[in-house]
């Protein structure tokens, strides 16, 4: 059992990754029998890396011709209700509902590459991976556990930190998660887009244009001149999402329940500074640098 999960929902180690028990049957079913369609789009992440934001941005971008932004479903639905989380759906017996979704499907997963590879191999589907500074993902997860149901064990941050450094973390180790998808994005850049949360924060407009091109629905000159990209960024921004009524009420997750509001906390880069000493940050940096060494994936050093 992982420290977060003492006396509550345990994770199990499956093919090198710690998978929360509620989702593991779903991940295994997907691995064994789910085949992606050529026009599927997968949004993939290690938890607390910007999944909710990416879901909102991609969904708004891809449905912009269907719904005027002023009356967009994202104003009354949480982003997680707009993009299906496939391990969860499969785990609760809704595989057929996922199969029945009309194309093009937008699906989300926390599966590491090694578990999803057979499902996507040869399909031609597209994948967007969002990565975040592991220090911030850890801090974000630690806060998130305070708000879950069934309750995850509330442990001191230092204990969470130790577990994270050892790779004993839900969906972890984070470095193997990052590496699997990073390498695939280098091999097949036309099909796997690797984004960073920090990049989205710094240049949201440029990145939304980039993802629109990647998914095959680039913004026209007219749309750009009319400020469409900026409007999408605004609709999906932390301030806008946080203030919506739907994101203040409870989410009824079928396995684990989280308040919709718990997906919107600070939304900044570097909140780890409020939780880690410089020594702790350096120690985690060294682990991450060593694990990612030679991959070309860098940029999260605390120095
Ligand atoms: P913090 O806890 O650091 O604030 P995920 O969606 O993968 O669960 O990740 C949640 C993290 O993304 C949280 O980080 C959350 O605040 C942040 N987030 C959610 N929506 C966001 C948005 N629209 N813009 C920026 N960050 C957002």
TrEMBL record:
Its EC number is 2.8.2.-. GO terms for molecular function: sulfotransferase activity. Keywords: Transferase. Residues 38-296 form the Sulfotransferase domain. It holds the Pfam family Sulfotransfer_1. It is an enzyme of class 2 (transferase). Belongs to the sulfotransferase 1 family. This is Sulfotransferase.
């Amino acid at each position: 059992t992982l420290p977060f999960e003492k006396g509550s929902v345990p994770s199990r180690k499956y093919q090198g990754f710690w998978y929360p028990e509620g989702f593991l049957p779903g991940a295994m079913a997907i691995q064994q029998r789910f085949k992606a369609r050529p026009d599927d789009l997968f949004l993939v992440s290690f938890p607390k890396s910007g999944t909710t934001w990416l879901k909102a941005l991609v969904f708004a971008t891809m449905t912009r011709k269907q719904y005027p932004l002023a009356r967009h479903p994202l104003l009354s639905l949480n982003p997680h209700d707009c993009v299906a989380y496939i391990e969860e759906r499969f785990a609760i017996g809704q595989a057929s509902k996922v199969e029945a979704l009309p194309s093009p499907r937008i699906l989300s997963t926390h599966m590491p590459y090694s578990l999803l590879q057979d499902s996507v191999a040869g399909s031609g589907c597209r994948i967007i991976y969002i990565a975040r500074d592991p220090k911030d993902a850890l801090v974000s997860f630690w806060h998130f556990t305070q708000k879950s149901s069934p309750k995850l064990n509330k442990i001191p941050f230092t204990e969470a930190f130790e577990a994270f450094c050892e790779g004993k973390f839900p969906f972890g180790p984070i470095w193997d998660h990052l590496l699997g998808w990073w390498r695939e994005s280098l091999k097949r850049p036309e099909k796997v887009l690797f984004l960073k949360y920090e990049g989205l924060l710094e240049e949201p407009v440029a990145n939304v244009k980039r993802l629109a091109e990647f998914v095959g629905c680039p913004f026209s000159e007219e749309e750009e001149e009319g400020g469409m990209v900026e409007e999408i960024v605004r609709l999906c921004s932390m301030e806008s999402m946080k203030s919506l009524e739907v994101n203040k009420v409870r989410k009824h997750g079928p396995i684990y329940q989280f308040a919709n509001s718990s997906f919107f906390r600070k939304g900044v880069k570097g909140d780890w500074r409020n939780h880690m000493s410089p020594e702790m940050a350096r120690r985690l940096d060294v682990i991450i640098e060593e694990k990612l060494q030679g991959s070309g994936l860098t940029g999260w050093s605390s120095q």
